[in-house]
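Hello,

Following up on my earlier ticket. Below are the four sequence lines again, exactly as submitted.
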Amino acid sequence: MDGSINFTPILEQVLDEVRPLTLQGKVANYIPELGHVDRNKLGIALYLPDGGTYTAGDAHERFSIQSISKVFTLIMAYRKLGDSLWQRVGREPSGNPFNSLIQLETDQGIPRNPFINAGALVVTDVLCSQYVNPHLAILEFIRQISGVEDINFNPRVARSEAQHGFRNAAMANFIKSFGNLKSPVENVLETYFRQCSIEMSCAELVSAAQLLVHYGTALGVSEALLTPSEVRRVASIMLTCGTYDAAGDFAFRIGLPAKSGVGGGILAVVPGRMALCVWSPALDAHGNSLAGSRALELFSGRTGFSIF
Amino acid sequence: MDGSINFTPILEQVLDEVRPLTLQGKVANYIPELGHVDRNKLGIALYLPDGGTYTAGDAHERFSIQSISKVFTLIMAYRKLGDSLWQRVGREPSGNPFNSLIQLETDQGIPRNPFINAGALVVTDVLCSQYVNPHLAILEFIRQISGVEDINFNPRVARSEAQHGFRNAAMANFIKSFGNLKSPVENVLETYFRQCSIEMSCAELVSAAQLLVHYGTALGVSEALLTPSEVRRVASIMLTCGTYDAAGDFAFRIGLPAKSGVGGGILAVVPGRMALCVWSPALDAHGNSLAGSRALELFSGRTGFSIF
Amino acid sequence: MDGSINFTPILEQVLDEVRPLTLQGKVANYIPELGHVDRNKLGIALYLPDGGTYTAGDAHERFSIQSISKVFTLIMAYRKLGDSLWQRVGREPSGNPFNSLIQLETDQGIPRNPFINAGALVVTDVLCSQYVNPHLAILEFIRQISGVEDINFNPRVARSEAQHGFRNAAMANFIKSFGNLKSPVENVLETYFRQCSIEMSCAELVSAAQLLVHYGTALGVSEALLTPSEVRRVASIMLTCGTYDAAGDFAFRIGLPAKSGVGGGILAVVPGRMALCVWSPALDAHGNSLAGSRALELFSGRTGFSIF
Amino acid sequence: MDGSINFTPILEQVLDEVRPLTLQGKVANYIPELGHVDRNKLGIALYLPDGGTYTAGDAHERFSIQSISKVFTLIMAYRKLGDSLWQRVGREPSGNPFNSLIQLETDQGIPRNPFINAGALVVTDVLCSQYVNPHLAILEFIRQISGVEDINFNPRVARSEAQHGFRNAAMANFIKSFGNLKSPVENVLETYFRQCSIEMSCAELVSAAQLLVHYGTALGVSEALLTPSEVRRVASIMLTCGTYDAAGDFAFRIGLPAKSGVGGGILAVVPGRMALCVWSPALDAHGNSLAGSRALELFSGRTGFSIF
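Thanks for your patience. The regenerated structure is below:
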């Protein structure tokens, strides 16, 4: 299947079919700001290297990207440290809920992968060591690779995360006790809560993901930011670890490397072939967008973009 | 990269480069029969849909396929039960060593996936319910899809496994205590130990794997044995769960769906594109062939067969 | 409080108060033979070194002693091996349900204590190494120390345990895989299921417990079977490990070293001071007799026999 | 054995025998202030209700009481909440190292017992709810029951604990995430670090322990602070949970309810009979004073104060 097809009707058809699912599941409400989001929101955007961007539904409305930010901070840290990054965070699926402290204890403070919260905190700590203002560096990087200048934090969301972030504070302190956080716990947490509060639309997320689609070359950036091999490795971690403890099921049903966030967004990328982002706020029991997962499954089944 | 290339020199080059690694690692010796295998053995075979089979080294010498048999029994059980199979075994990476009983306790007797021992025992139990002589049915199926009539069990290996198989016996009894084994524990174990003792060569394994390369159509079998969608799903489980608790690292470094066995074989498959089998008896700490893993990594890096 | 008091009215009063609790809880029914027991049964027997034996209710009716047998096999193995026994089984509370395999994996096949099933299997294995007919040796020992010649196994219960004993079979095989069972798994399990099926009355159990009350000297046996120090040690294990994962609560509420069984019996012993046995078949969530626990608590509170 | 004996020679004899052990083990050094303590220090003090106080060695030199403070805060919280305290903290041995987060996750933020760090944090949180200046209230309580006016915190130790207390901070945040801390995490931690830094001598600790020896009546306090039943319950928790994950072994070898601290002190109490405190800074692998444990064992073996 190639770029000469008009994908807009396919995307619209997919949205129509999954719309009833937006009534099921649960909008994340551990902080009030997320709980207020309208569960009827539903958007999708597709980027193809030779066909441009297709959108449907609320594809241009911004939402809290939450854990999708972990893809961007991983790329930033990977660029800075190269493969020595893997001395501080693993690349294995965790087999446990995303905020589990159990494995961290067994593994002596080395998180299983960069997409569980523990691993993302270590990645953020790397950025805290590399940048004077790490949260601004993250924002600038995302603005640069997406080509959208007014992407920003939501300070109320960031503050609210900080006020309710006892589990993340526990994790950061625990990792620190093993010596695997270098910056003060408070700084790492503050940066982390800010990166999670960034708001982007589906269309903006697939723009940013061009960096992975084009094997390391971002939109409007002259030099390559990652090598093709590094891009493949990021994609492999998305496939095996990107959707919490449902990654195996995601690979099985959908067959696309993807990263989800509790804001209801899911960003899927196949290097060389496509980026796809879907948004629907209500979540399944694993914390992945319910309608969004199904949309990805329908799209993948119909278009043959599965990597398998 | 396509089938018009002669891949034999590439395979030979890869073997030459990894040969020093055959001196490292540890040949499995939990049963004497496996421990006696010559650690210098090294073979590789490649099947391409439009280019036939290429081999190098000891590609035609048979070895104990061990856990690679789990791919074949999974296919057989999946054919029989369809997606209802997943009520009895999961599809998630385990995040724990391959013989762990811990998750089994937490998960009430439902193994995480069909490629850890616990899951393979449940799959074998399905076959025990479906066939009068399940071990013969397994053998016949492998003979059929590979087109090799004299593939057989190694009865000494099977007997030795039974004599030292206390961990598997523990697991089978434990699963039975949760009601997730239907046949008598002894029958399931006997069938399981036999399937693990089957001996095949790299060349024979890629022949058998044509079933997956051709999206469900086996060598010399008229009807499709699996649907393309089912083949993709088997491949996704191989990618996320096929190499014990190193599956994430395997996906990261190699990018190929694969299943390894403690006999030192690794079978990798990309549906529609290729099957690759490598054999070198010495294992790394995770139980995967050390030189074999590196051979897959070199081959994948040079040929672009990675799925990412 | 001393032996010149007539304790019979106190025992009767305690039974009257706890009788309503016999309607609550659940009679063990994992094997049919246990499930058929009348939940209205309620008996108690007290032995005092200077006052003889007092009984009330169904104190002379036999029931399945089940895990109370672990006290007797522990004494037998301790006599044979002395403190080298503790190389094969620990003396720490497990903090987990009584049939957990998790700690066994972490602890490399060394069970936490002799009163969880895993530990009792190791203790029984010790007896299998020491006696040609270990089950007969156990029976003979219990007959000897209690002075009751016709105590016996219930073969139907033993057979039924064997038919439903997958969890115990899992544990025995698991321990064997770590090398901490010396005899064949089948022999150990058969002996274990038989010892659990022994039937005794409350009165007979306090007779047998004289061995502990008199610091090692059993009823009608001339030589000392244990040293006073060994008796204290058995009592300490009863206190910290004798009532599954409710041992801390038992010590807190009752303050008596005790061992319970799923047949509804609980045997409590304070060396030098008393032995007390209560029987009521319905169990609480931890597997301890519900009315029996409360009877011990009332008795302990009123008489000052608590060790604290 | 009664109070008319002069126990001083026995204590001196015990110290002489265990003195060689002070060269083994490891002085706690996770904070510099503890690491500087002289490992040759060795003291013991005994209080008997009818015989007064006996001392030997460095019994009058103060040391960091660390976790022994948990006994005093438990008594304070128990007085305030009564048995409703047990809704927020359990009474079961943990079966895991003293700072484990694993069980906390399984048990939804309810620590197993008040003597592991997690449980002590909850107890301290109770005091934070009850007192405006909880750390001063704790100090005042200890001064009152020991009758020593100049007992005090060591502010350098408290500050150092705070600077290195990431594991405790992780635990406090984790418990807070389950809703089982009411006060701000910072306040609870600050109070906790202060209470651990209190310095007392062996002689002062047995003075304070008179409260437990006399079943609730403290030195020079007219009203009873606990009921006899509450005192027994505190003692039972000391026995089953007071020495980290070696409590079973402690009960087995020593047979005395006891609470140890990483400062090298161990306080043992038998209500109605005695209080014994020993101090030697070097610790065994479980975090209990090595020479101190052995001293308790020798003393218990020779005097018959074991509760079993």
